[in-house]
Design a protein that fits this description.
five-stranded antiparallel sheet; OB fold (Dihydrolipoamide Acetyltransferase, E2P); alpha+beta; Rossmann fold; six-stranded mixed sheet
């Protein structure tokens, strides 16, 4: 296995700049997720690592080997990098054994190597003769990853591998693939636009925005201390309210809130996560209720509730238990539990 180091990676297609000055290191054995909306440059960066595209500027090393630099670019087939595209892209005309052993030199296509990879992927031996259409979605993903791992690559790249799966299968396939990567000890880079997938699977998350790295952090750090309000809103959802900041507190429509990152003063914004918001029914006829429920989205285990606040445009988002659902039009008192994160600068009009 080996670390991946990117320095100053820049890429344009004609007049369109896709990547600008990407500096990122993926440690040996680490799984890093490249997270961002469509068109932010995630897949382009993955293709540059794989050798399917060349950067205009910058260097790329894997371990001690410079793959892109002053001496040119090492061809994709000589990089020892595995690639798992969307949906796995198994060969439909080959059985499981043929798919797994496909990338190996003929002399290494042995029963022992097949058995080793089947065991690592927790695939029953009898499935070796099965064809992709006879497998479940989760089994297909494990076969695709076993095929990528069979040549003993130094790095595995996964390009939106679960995009076509339904929610339940997506979650289980993610767990299986992560377990397989951990068992193999492989350095891996995962491209995704799904923030929950990135937070739950990766050791660190690199957020790409307009071709630049906006923040790189472990999942807890990214969620609890986003670098700006745009990242906060993209990762996990949040309510962003205008506030007056001073001495570790924030005065906003919800009253005086404690700030977890004292320092900013003056006009600014505060970040309130949905799980911090506690709603209580207002007494009948109450005129001082803080907000009015405008939307309730029920998910079985709970619901997402939007509350209109007086005198401010942003809606407050809360998560509530399924047994405590308010109704649209209800007046509610709002309590924010715990400190909020503050960001200086006036809220945009």
């Amino acid at each position: 296995m080996a670390a991946v180091t990117m320095t100053g990676i820049t890429k344009s297609y004609g007049a369109q700049r896709v990547l600008t000055g990407i500096d990122l290191t993926v440690a040996d054995g680490e799984l890093v997720a490249l997270l961002g909306p469509s068109g932010c440059g995630k897949t382009t960066l993955l293709r540059i690592i794989a050798g399917f595209a060349a950067p205009d500027e910058g260097t790329l090393t894997v371990g001690d080997d410079e793959l892109v630099g002053a001496r040119g670019s090492v061809p994709a087939e000589r990089r020892r990098i595995g690639y798992v595209p969307q949906e796995g892209a198994l060969f439909p005309h080959l059985p499981v054994r043929g798919n797994i052993l496909f990338g190996l030199p003929r002399r290494e296509r042995t029963a022992d190597r097949l058995a080793e990879m089947m065991e690592l992927a927790e695939l029953p031996a009898h499935l070796a003769a099965s064809y992709p259409h006879q497998l479940s979605g989760g089994q297909q993903h494990r076969v695709a990853l076993a095929r990528a791992l069979a040549p003993r690559p130094r790095v595995i790249l996964l390009d939106e591998p679960f995009a076509a799966l339904d929610a339940a299968l997506r979650e289980s396939a993610g767990r299986e693939v992560t377990r397989l990567l951990r068992a193999a000890g492989t350095t891996a880079v995962l491209v995704t636009h799904d923030q929950s997938e990135a937070l739950s699977l990766a050791d660190r998350v690199a957020v790409l925005r307009h071709g630049r790295l906006a923040q790189v952090a472990d999942p807890v750090g990214l969620y609890t201390a986003p670098a700006d309000v745009d990242i906060a809103s993209f990762v996990g959802g949040a309510s962003v309210l205008p506030a007056s900041l001073q001495n570790g507190s924030a005065q906003c429509v919800l009253g005086d809130l404690r700030v977890e990152n004292p320092g900013p003063t003056g006009e600014g914004r505060v970040l309130v996560r949905p799980e911090q918001v506690h709603l209580r029914p207002a007494a009948a006829g109450a005129k001082d209720a803080v907000g009015v429920v405008t939307e309730v989205r029920y998910f079985g285990h709970g619901a997402q509730v939007r509350v209109e606040l007086p005198g401010t445009t942003p809606l407050l988002v809360a998560r509530v238990a399924g047994a405590e659902l308010p109704a649209v039009g209800d007046k509610v008192y709002v309590e924010v539990q715990g400190p909020v994160r503050a960001y200086p600068g006036e809220a945009p009009a």
